[in-house]
Amino acid sequence: MTHCTFEHALAEAIQLARLAPSSHNCQPWTVHFDPVIHCGYLAIDQRRKLTGLPSLEREMLLSCGIFFHFLEQLVRLRGYPLHWRWCDAQEQQALAGEDRALIRFMPGPEQPQQQSAFASLSEQLQQRHTVRSAYRNTALSAQQHSELNTLLKPYPITLGIYYQHTHGKALAKLTQTYAGLDFANRAAWRETYSYIRFDERRQYEDGFYLHNLFGPVSGGFKTFFKVAFHPRLSGLNKLLGLPGKMAQGLAELVEAGPQYLALSTTKEGDEALFRAGLGLGAMWLRLQQWGWAMHPISVLVQHDNARQALAKSLSQAELPVFFARFGEPNESGSPAPRRHWQSILVSDTHGQVQPRTTGR
C-alpha cells in the first residue's frame, strides 16, 4: 500500500477543493488543523465574510458545504475517511482569529488509496467552471432526473427541476423584474464591485474577471464598465438605463434555459444549509461528469421579494435557497482567481495559531 501522511493528503485535497464555487468567488472557507492531536475544523474565514446582504450568510454556508464535500471525497480517495460533526455554539467561537468554526473533523484509520478515482476527481474539479453563456437544447432524460434525486436523498434538500418550455418565459420575466436589485442596494453593489478584477494581467486570489461574466471582452468595454458601474456613479448608470440593459441580458439567458433547478432545505438552521451545500457539491460533480454545467441566478434567492416571487412561480411551498439554469454548455467556462492552499490551511498547535502565509 502506498503510504501518504494525513497532513500531506489534507494539503493536497485543499489544493483541489479550493476550486469550489462561492458567491463573488470570495472563497470564505478556512481549515484549522492541529497535527499533534490530529483534529481540525472547517471554519468561515472572517476576513472573507460577505456582509452586503443578510442572505449572503446563507450562500457562504452552502459554499462551505460544497468545499467540504470536495475535500472529504479527495481525502477519502487518498486513504483517509473523515469523521466529522457540527460544532456546538461554544466550539464555533473556539478558534483564534475569530474564525467561525462550522465542523470538527478527524481522520479515520488509513485505508488503501484509490489512485485512479483520485486522478479522475482531480480532473473533474479542474475542469469545473461556472458557465454563464448559452447552453445547448439537450434535454434532461428521465434516467438523469432519477440519478439526481437518488444522489440527493442523504441530504436535507428538496430538488425541483423545471423546463424552458413550461417556465422559461415566466422566469425570464422574474429576472427582468428583479435583476436590478443587484445595483439598487448600494452596500451590496459596492461589495460586488470590489470583487471585480479589471486587470487580467495581474494574479488575484479571489473575485472574478469580466470575461468570467461576459466571455471575451475588449479593453474598451472593461474601461466603460469600470467607470459606468462604479458605485459612486450609481446615479449616472441609472440615468443611462444600464441596470435595465444588464437585467435584459440576463433575462434572455434565463429564458433560453434549457432546464432549471431549485433547491430548498427540509430543515431550518445553519447546519441544514451546510449539509445542503454538501448535496449541492455532489450534484455539481455529477453534472460535470455528464459534461454539463450550472449558472446560478443568485439575484432571485438573495432578495426576499424576489425569492418569494420565485417560489410562487415554481409552485414551491418552501422558499428556495439555490436556483440555477443548467444544461450542456456550448463552450466551457473560464478559470477564476483562486487562493493559494497555504492561505486556507492554518496550523493550530496547543491552541497557538500559526499565521497564514498570504492574506487578502
List keywords for this structure.
single chain, 360 residues, alpha+beta, NADH Oxidase, 2 domains, six-stranded mixed β-sheet, four-stranded antiparallel β-sheet, 12 strands, disordered C terminus, Nitroreductase-like, Prodigiosin biosynthesis protein PigM
Question: Can you give a write-up of this model?
Answer:
It comes from Pseudoalteromonas rubra. InterPro entries: Nitroreductase-like. GO terms for molecular function: oxidoreductase activity. This is Prodigiosin biosynthesis protein PigM. With 360 residues, this protein is α+β, with helices and mostly antiparallel strands. It folds into two domains: 141 residues, NADH Oxidase (3-Layer(aba) Sandwich), CATH 3.40.109; 186 residues, NADH Oxidase, CATH 3.40.109. Helix content is 45%, strand content 17%. The chain contains 15 helices and twelve strands. A six-stranded mixed β-sheet has the order 3-4-2-1-11-12, with helices on one face. The chain has a four-stranded antiparallel β-sheet with strand order 5-8-10-9. Strands 6-7 form a two-stranded parallel sheet. Helix 6 packs antiparallel against helix 15. The relative contact order is 0.19. The C terminus is likely disordered.
| Strand ordering within the main sheet | 3-4-2-1-11-12
CATH class assignment of the largest domain:
Alpha Beta
Regarding quaternary structure, how should these chains be classified?
A: single chain
Secondary-structure-derived class: alpha+beta
* Portion in helices: 40-55%
Find the count of extended strands (DSSP E, 2+ residues).
12
Strand content: 15-25%
